[in-house]
Write a structure and sequence with these properties.
Blueprint: H1 2-18, H2 30-40, H3 52-71, H4 79-117
Length: about 120
């Protein structure tokens, strides 16, 4: 019920923003921007990690990156490349962080067993 209400409200805002309700004028890769903002905000694509504040900060950072692309004179068609790169870097960072955490837990387990034997 809450999800449906928020979807309706966001649809109204999108229609006001684009000044159109034609289906061809909507869906301009907004899901890519949402995923990039979530990854920038600290969400793991595997699920279970992240916060609302992180998503808000990720959205702000993504908007700053897109404005930076425009200010540097880079063609606006590369905004999608920037968003895709952000997602790719976020996925790689998440994988490395998960591997680091597993190695650290493994080392702690080994140290605990070594201390238990002494």
């Amino acid at each position: 019920m809450i999800c449906a209400g928020l979807t309706a409200l966001s649809s109204i805002f999108l229609a006001m923003y684009t000044r159109s309700i034609l289906p061809s004028s909507h869906g301009n890769f907004y899901e890519l921007y949402a995923i990039a903002a979530a990854v920038l905000g600290g969400f793991s694509l595997r699920g279970g990690e992240g916060s609302i504040i992180g998503v808000v900060l990720g959205t702000i950072l993504l908007q700053v990156l897109q404005n930076l692309v425009n200010l540097l004179g880079i063609p606006s068609s590369l905004n999608f490349a920037v968003s895709g790169s952000v997602i790719q870097i976020g996925v790689l960072a998440d994988q490395e962080y998960t591997a680091f955490r597993k190695r650290r837990e493994l080392m702690r387990g080994r140290l605990a067993t070594a201390e238990g034997r002494l």
